[in-house]
Write a structure and sequence with these properties.
Order of helices and strands: HEEEEEEEEEHHHHHEHEEEEH
Pfam family, one: PDGF
CATH architecture of the largest domain: Sandwich
Low-confidence stretches: 1-12, 39-63
Helix content: 25-40%
Number of domains: 4
Organism: Poecilia formosa (Amazon molly)
Radius of gyration: 37 Å
Signal peptide: 1-40
InterPro entries: CUB_dom, Cystine-knot_cytokine, PDGF/VEGF_dom, Sperma_CUB_dom_sf
Distance between the termini: 136 Å
CATH superfamily of the largest domain: Spermadhesin, CUB domain
Largest sheet: 5 strands, mixed
Keywords: Cleavage on pair of basic residues, Developmental protein, Disulfide bond, Glycoprotein, Growth factor, Mitogen, Secreted, Signal
Length: 361
């Protein structure tokens, strides 16, 4: 009996340190969880405090939005302008004009962001919003051209700059802002009705002068044209055009390409071969080469105007270019030829346009 009792006592003594260690670990884990919860609560409180800060102009500044009071000239720009901007960045500025004045925004000539995809700025772009009208004045990317100046309809304007985690470009953008004169503070009155209220003939004339399908979408729906572009080329299970099925395209017809083909093969300057003797009315000499290529207006004007019965393709800008050719001329008596290099001036049509013959008459 004595031996058995002694063994049990030894086993109990061995288990005590293990139990104490487990209790210590549980205590430490509870302490860590309590500390983490306190820090998270403190962080939430600080965020709430930040979001409640108001600028002197009375506009509340959020955590992700910087409010700037516009009382004169200034600028905002992408980080590190005019060098490569960082990846994965989102910056928002709210410009608030003093005395309810309107704001003018002008882009710096150094402009370059990631190129668009299918004509749509999806990745890196700068966007201007007019909160008064609740409309997007524009979204820009790429580096082909500098965006045009913008004017707010009210006293506020919002500028957003977004870049994704791929392919940053340079130099980014720089936007100069200033106050419009008091005389120009009132929004310009628009006499043209919105597209939805225009008649068929009026709408036809309005869209006929637009260059790309993007311009058409901007004209029809300036607030959501980019969404309309994405929907325009998205095939559905119940409606698939023949061009999509027969050509097996990943997207629908390229409307811009179709319009460009019409432009290229309609009234445009194109290469024509002309006889120098006939062109210069010099039948007494010989030219070599006898024909040269010149730019002359050509093509049809079927899409000139639906109200014109007879359209003609005529030059609107003509220039003279000199070509060096070999001139052969009979000497006196006709027994020999005089050979010399000479310059001949030929007309080249630089620009062409379809003109209604009825209007000319």
């Amino acid at each position: 009996m004595f031996v058995v009792i002694q063994t049990r006592v030894q086993l109990c003594d061995c288990q005590l340190p293990l139990i104490q260690m487990i209790l210590l670990l549980i205590f430490l884990l509870a302490s860590l969880l309590q500390q983490y919860g306190t820090e998270a609560e403190s962080s939430d409180v600080s965020k709430l405090q930040l979001s409640s800060i108001k600028e002197p102009n009375g506009v509340q500044e959020s955590v992700q939005e910087k409010v700037l009071t516009v009382s004169g000239e200034g600028m905002i720009h992408s980080p590190d302008f005019p060098h490569t901007y960082p990846r994965d960045t989102m910056l928002v500025w709210r410009l608030v004009a003093a005395d309810n004045r309107r704001i003018q925004l002008t882009f710096d000539e150094n402009f370059g962001l990631e190129d668009p995809e299918d004509g749509i700025c999806k990745y890196d772009f700068v966007e201007i919003e007019d909160p008064t009208e609740k409309t997007i004045l524009g979204r820009w990317c790429g580096s082909q051209s500098v965006p045009s100046s913008q004017k707010s309809t009210g006293s506020q304007v919002i500028v957003r700059f977004i870049s994704d985690e791929y392919f940053p470009s340079e130099p980014g953008f720089c936007l100069h802002y200033s106050l419009l004169p008091v005389s120009a503070s009132e929004p310009e009155a628009t006499t043209q009705p919105p597209p939805s209220l225009q008649g068929v003939e009026e709408l036809l004339e309005a869209v006929a002068v637009l260059s790309t399908v993007e311009d058409v979408m901007k004209y029809l729906e300036p607030e959501r044209w980019q969404l309309d572009m994405e929907e325009l080329y998205k095939p559905t299970w119940h409606v698939l055009g023949k061009s999509f099925i027969l050509n097996r395209k990943a997207r629908g017809a390229d409307l811009n390409l179709q319009r460009e083909e019409v432009r290229l093969y309609s009234c445009t300057p194109r290469n024509y071969s002309v006889s120098l003797r006939e062109e210069l009315k010099r039948t007494d000499v010989i030219f070599w080469p006898s024909c040269l290529l010149v730019k002359r207006c050509g093509g049809n004007c079927a899409c000139c105007s639906h109200r014109c019965a007879d359209c003609q393709c005529v030059p609107t800008r003509v220039t003279k270019k000199y070509h060096e050719v070999l001139l052969l001329r009979h000497r006196g008596g006709g027994r020999s030829l005089q050979k010399s290099m000479t310059d001949v001036a030929l007309e080249h049509h630089e620009e062409c346009s379809c003109v209604c013959k009825d209007d000319q008459d």
